[in-house]
Amino acid sequence: MPGVVEPETGLVFYELSHEWGHDVPMQPGFDEVRVYRSSTHAKNGVMAQRIRMVMHSGTHVNAPRHMIQTGIGVGEIALDRFFGSGVVVRIPKQRWELVTAADLEAATPAIEPEDIVVIDTGWHAKFSDSIEYFGRSPGLSKDAAEWLVKKGVKLVAVDTPQVDHPLATSLGPHRNGPQMKRIAREYEVATGRSALGDFPEWNAAHRVLLAAGIPTIENAGGDLSEVSGKRCTFHAMPWNFEGGDACAIRFVAILDPAGSFRLAAGA
């Protein structure tokens, strides 16, 4: 699907968010998003809705506060971290594979300091309330996170439900888990290796990024494939939520084919 062209400027906008709302696929262990109408057109002539949700729903940004006790919240993150140039790097991964530092080093376009980095594993195409999407997804290795910190990027987005491999999270045999009881055994049968042996640390990659002050976006999707392999300008503003651990966002990539606005042409 092509992006949306703004007729006055020629800028092309691409949706990188999954559709959000009632029945959005949720991380196992989290309550469902509940949307209900407290005022209706039929009764009051006006629509007003209430929402009850975990902030980690749909396409969302995580602040350092999410995993780092002394970290800043969503509303305290500098605005320029959510807007600017960066890359969508295509790193295809299959069930339970890891995105490594070597993958990032070899990725094209090249990742530069101060980039917003969006990692397209292809997993966004599986977005659904399913064991496959949440429990068998790829994730970042700890060395990949350390590589991104050393490179000096300013935001990292993934098209998976969590930054880390699911067996390095509470979905597997770690703190508060397992939230998905079958996946550790499935992994061990499929690989002949121990889940805890392969993933001894809890959320290692995510904690490395957040401890360095790098916000993360999970569940990137939408038209991501349309800009995969391109350098883009990104916009992902969250709420001004002081102390917030996370926030649902509208995530957008922008291309400037004519180069009139000094935004990335996507070439």
Automatic annotation (TrEMBL):
Gene3D superfamilies: Putative cyclase. It comes from the Bacteria. One of its GO terms (biological process) is L-tryptophan catabolic process to kynurenine. It holds the Pfam family Cyclase. One of its GO terms (molecular function) is arylformamidase activity. This is Cyclase family protein. It comes from Devosia nanyangense.
